[in-house]
Design a protein that fits this description.
This is Glycosyltransferase 2-like domain-containing protein. The chain is an alpha/beta fold and about 260 residues long. About 40% of the residues lie in helices and about 20% in strands.
Length: about 260
């Protein structure tokens, strides 16, 4: 069964180069297609990809459509029965994609399936797997208060679930959005990404809608993925990123309020 790997880029050439190398190095035994959607980068990402990775399907947007819309566009231009949404700052290890694929193939009730992200030093980035946010959780863990909140184990578990490394798979609210495997039919049935989210919370919203529809989201503790973390947005002004985060948070909670009525 073919896997369509969807990658959205925005001024992320060094990262996406390593990402693509890892894909082709570790997926030779699988049927894959890579669809890259470039959101009008100005660092020549698209031109460099054309030269070094001519085998991938490249879509060049004339303007930045946002992360959700670009991913949906990638899906429309793909054909695999399974979709892997992969951030450009993630690198695959041997057998990672195969394990994600098998888990998704074997469970039709699964929504999103992901692995554990690790940093360059091999440390697990546990804060990328979360329980669904509330306004209070967002204030405590996504502002300057995070430094204090994460020192309190009980409070920390309220937002970050404890991962049982001995499990083959663990049900969670929100798997890591940097690497998400999902069946095409499931993604289509749920309506894809909500394009009102330009950046941030589109993955949270997708995970929530899947759970509400009766699907289960999982993390596979034995599957590791190298993650640099926010390299593209790190190149933007902090104030701009913060403003976009808050805008998306407000959109998400407003949508949740409507869904609960």
């Amino acid at each position: 069964m073919k896997v369509s790997i969807i990658i959205v880029t925005f001024n992320s050439w060094p990262e996406v180069q390593n990402c693509l190398k890892s894909i082709f190095e570790h997926t030779s035994n699988l049927e894959i297609e890579v669809v890259m959607v470039d959101n009008a980068s100005n660092d020549r990402t698209a031109a460099k990809v054309k030269t070094q990775f001519p085998q991938i399907k490249l879509i060049e947007n004339l303007k930045n459509l946002g992360f959700a819309a670009a991913n949906n566009l990638g899906v429309k231009n793909s054909s695999g029965g399974f979709l892997l949404f992969l951030n450009p700052d993630v690198e695959l290890f041997k057998d990672a994609l195969n394990q994600l694929l098998q888990a998704s193939k074997n469970d039709t009730s699964a929504g999103i399936i992901s692995g554990l992200l690790i940093d360059q030093g091999g440390k697990i980035q546990t804060t990328y797997i979360r329980n669904f946010p509330t306004p209070l959780k967002t204030i405590l863990f996504d502002t300057k208060l995070k430094v204090i909140a994460e020192l309190m184990p009980g409070l920390k578990r309220w937002y970050y679930p404890k991962i049982n490394m001995g499990l083959k798979k663990q049900k969670v609210d929100q798997p890591a959005g940097a690497c998400m495997m999902i069946r095409r039919e499931t993604f289509k049935k749920i309506g894809g990404f909500d394009e009102q989210f330009f950046l941030f919370f589109e993955d949270v919203d997708l995970a929530y809608r899947l759970k509400q529809a009766g699907y289960k989201n999982y993390v596979l503790p034995k599957v590791k993925l190298k993650h640099l973390g926010g390299m593209s947005i790190a190149k933007e002004r902090k104030s701009k990123i913060r403003s976009q985060f808050l805008k998306s948070a407000k959109q998400y909670f407003k949508k949740q309020k409507k869904l609960r009525k």
